[in-house]
Amino acid sequence: MMALTKKRKEAEEKFNAEQHYSLAEASKIVKDITSTNFDSTVDLAIRLGVDPRKANQMVRGTVSLPHGTGKDVKVLVLCTPDKEAEAQEAGADFVGLDEFITKIKGGWTDVDVIITMPSVMGKVGALGRILGPRGLMPNPKTGTVTMNIGQAVTDVKAGKIDFKVDKYGIVHAAIGKASFESEKLAENASELISTILKMKPSSAKGTYMQSVTLSSTMSPGVKVDTKSLTA
User: Fold this and answer.
1) CA 188, CA 207: separation in Å to the nearest integer?
2) Where are the beta strands (DSSP E) in the chain?
């Protein structure tokens, strides 16, 4: 624990924790202060001026990050036999239906994304209590309930992510790895931010994008200047 504290202190000496930086500057700083012995995930935390308890202020959607997430995303496709080949050719890691529904009921959830088709949602819907809390429940709004199975798998593998504001009004999303070039991290972050800006609910009052923080696994957060994002 002492070594971790020392690393944290060294990291905080490399930038001003109270200063707000441009997205490009913040991306460079996060790379500079990351000292883990593995390829850390870089996260973006965006606090929005919305009330998620109100249905007309829920901010949720998907975005395709131009440089992907750097993560090997495990995809399960729950589909009828006629769609299995399409899913497999697109790169799905697991393909099937009843046998995987049985596995999930038994507690197996070793995947990152589940894609399915409208005709089997009756079966998949029964898994809501298991998949919902883990953020794995397929949803038409995020493109994971579709007849175009192959394209959905391709999009997810290429870096399409879904995001949703939590009960505190914050969107958390992984936008890359510390090994990415800082320019690529900034471009991924910018793509997510611009998507969220376009989704501002008409009923939201006051400042919409209240704060933006960039960080990596176990690193301090670097504040981003929101005025430079909305200008």
Assistant:
1) 23
2) 41-48, 60-64, 75-78, 94-96, 113-116, 160-164, 170-177, 209-216, 222-224
DSSP structure class, residue 61: E
Reduced to 3 states (helix: H, G, I; strand: E, B; else coil), residue 177 is strand
Closest CA to 115 of 96, 134, 89: 96
Return phi, psi of residue 126, to 5°: -70, -10
Cα end-to-end span (Å), the chain? 42
Does this model's pTM top 0.70?
yes
Look at residues 170, 192, 199 and name the one whose alpha carbon lies nearest to residue 27.
192
Residues 197-224: pLDDT tens digits?
Answer: 999 999 988 999 999 999 998 889 999 9
